[in-house]
Specification:
287 residues, alpha/beta, 4-stranded antiparallel β-sheet
Length: 287
């Protein structure tokens, strides 16, 4: 595997009844997605990777270093958009530009202004008067406008309409095409966003990674099988990951769609997709 720009091994953080305990890698040249319910641990993981919180155990490295040891130069190589952060509402975009130029040698003012216009972000309006969607666009635009090596984006498409999400995701694709040594870690509640842009996806639940898969494999080989009780009783369960009792019988998650398509013509085989996999991994039971 290529060099990782972010790596966590048994990273631990305790908050009362909640414990984060997960491992994850974000290699160069890839967009890595992480999905999970609210409170599953995504934001905690991001903050630990950025040195905003101190882990209680395990290891995390960002750009090859302990986050607490990152220099100002190192941090300039990281573009960040967290769900609970943003610019002061008293500022205007035209006032942000000189700040970005001061802090980031690689800040591309021409690109920033061009994209701000494309996204409908007025330079003379206070950020406090921006809509939720406009604030989300600004955070991501600032993150990608200084040629960072690593982007860490927590729910960047939240509050955006379909067109704006598409524009933002295209901007991320362009960002990755600009340098094969870059990498992105992105979370989103909108599975279609991740399916269309991520190379691999982690599923986190209760602070633990319960699935990691290449997106192509997840989309092509995973499936949700649906059958009645009698069919379930006769089913070859050697390739079943999770099963869930339903009013009609059973739903089963498999990573061997072709096996059941070829050998079980009487059962329903539905494409899993991220939403289907998430539901089955969280609500289904191991057999």
């Amino acid at each position: 595997m290529s060099e990782c720009l972010l790596k966590a091994e048994r990273l631990k953080k305790n908050y009362g009844a909640f414990t984060l305990d997960c491992s994850l890698e974000v290699p160069k040249g890839r967009i890595t997605g992480i999905v999970g319910r609210n409170g599953a641990g995504k934001t905690t993981l991001f903050k630990a990777a950025l040195g905003l919180i101190k882990p209680d155990g395990g290891m995390v490295q960002t750009l090859g270093k302990n986050p607490a040891e990152l220099t100002a130069e190192d941090r300039a190589k990281t573009g960040v958009a967290l769900s609970d952060s943003g610019f002061s509402g008293y500022l205007k975009i035209k006032e942000i530009i000189p700040v970005m130029k001061k802090f980031y040698d690689g800040f591309d003012e021409e690109f920033f202004r061009e994209q701000a216009g494309k996204f409908g972000l007025p330079e003379d309006k206070k950020i406090s008067e921006f809509s939720t969607g406009m604030k989300a666009k600004l955070k991501v635009l600032a993150a990608v406008s200084h040629r960072a090596e690593l982007l860490i984006l927590d729910e960047p498409t939240a509050g955006l309409d379909v067109v704006a999400r598409d524009e933002l995701l295209n901007m991320l694709r362009d960002y990755m095409e600009g340098d094969e040594n870059r990498a992105v870690l992105i979370s989103s509640h909108i599975s279609g966003d991740l399916e269309g842009i991520c190379d691999d996806i982690y599923l986190i639940e209760g602070g633990r990674i319960i699935l990691h898969e290449d997106t192509d494999v997840l989309m092509d080989s995973y499936a949700v099988l649906k059958m009645d009780d009698e069919q379930f009783g006769k089913l070859d369960k050697s390739h079943i990951i999770r099963a869930r009792k339903e009013p009609f019988g059973y739903s089963c998650l498999t990573a061997e769609k072709s096996f059941y398509t070829e050998n079980c013509p009487d059962i329903i085989v539905e494409k899993g997709g991220i939403d289907g996999v998430i539901t089955m991994m969280i609500k289904g039971e191991e057999i």
